[in-house]
Amino acid sequence: MADTDLVELNDVEKTSGKLGKREQTKLANRESILNAAREVFAELGYGETTVRDIIRKTGLASGTFYNYFKSKEEVFEALMDEGMMRIRPRIRAERIRSRTFDEFIRNAYHAYFEYLAADMETFHIMRRNPNALRVRMDTPEIVAGFEEIREYIEEDIRNGILPAVDSEFLMAAVVGIAMEIGDRMLARAKPDPEQAAAFATTLVIQGYKALQPK
User: Is the Cβ–Cβ distance between 75 and 58 less than 8 Å?
Assistant: First the structure.
């Protein structure tokens, strides 16, 4: 199933006419839990949030919650995966339309920072949960997203577009810059995706070019 299809499945209204009653109920319950968790994590922070807080916000029975998630950690990871599922198709689209690696980096950063600035739920979660975000980087969608970027880099190395740099290190730099600058951008009174993208792009492009053999 494609990422875009998974995103559509998370939208209860769009799928209500396509799924059976039981599937609709399951989808609605899961969405209710995730929506409640977004609010609670943003309000209390990851450390202070309990499963009971999330359940109370949903109005569901505790047994219903545990049919979907075993802990608040699983809920938080599901939220992070959901965000990655939304951004990966955008990054992939920028990869397809970009003619060079430099253009891809510029377009990908712009798409990512625009996404962050437009998603206030992500803003609130990131602001209240910076440490949780840093330690939960091994969820399936996040790992797949990072791996996809590394594959883009290795493809460009094979095609002679990039010098033979360490693809894992370069991927880590690209992702790390995006996360840290995105976090700082969201903390400002007026987040500026254009400024953030320009700064991040310059760092990456000038950085990898300095690694080329003299």
Answer: no
Element (H, E) at 30: helix 21-44
In this predicted structure, what is the pLDDT of residue 67?
A: 94
Q: Are 213 and 122 in contact (CB under 8 A)?
A: no
Tell me the three state secondary structure of residue 25. helix
DSSP state of 48: T
CATH fold of 76-209 reads Tetracycline Repressor; domain 2 (1.10.357)
Q: Where are the domains of the chain?
A: 3-73, 76-209
Whole-number pLDDT of residue 196: 97
Q: Say if residues 134 and 183 touch (Cβ distance below 8 Å).
A: no
Q: Which residues of the chain have pLDDT under 70?
A: 1-19, 120-138, 213-214
Amino acid 206: pLDDT:
93
State how far the Cα of 107 lies from the Cα of 92, in Å rounded to an integer.
Answer: 11
User: How far is the C-alpha of 119 from the C-alpha of 166, rounded, in Å?
Assistant: 33
What SS3 state is found at 89? helix
The domain defined by 3-73 carries CATH number 3.40.50.720: no
How far is residue 87 CA from its own chain's centroid?
6
Alpha-carbon gap, residue 47 to 121, rounded angstroms:
18
What's the CA gap between 58 and 40, in Å, rounded? 10
What is the C-alpha to C-alpha distance for residues 59 and 55, in angstroms, rounded to an integer?
6
pLDDT value at position 84? 83
| Stated pTM of the model | 0.73
pLDDT of residue 214: 64
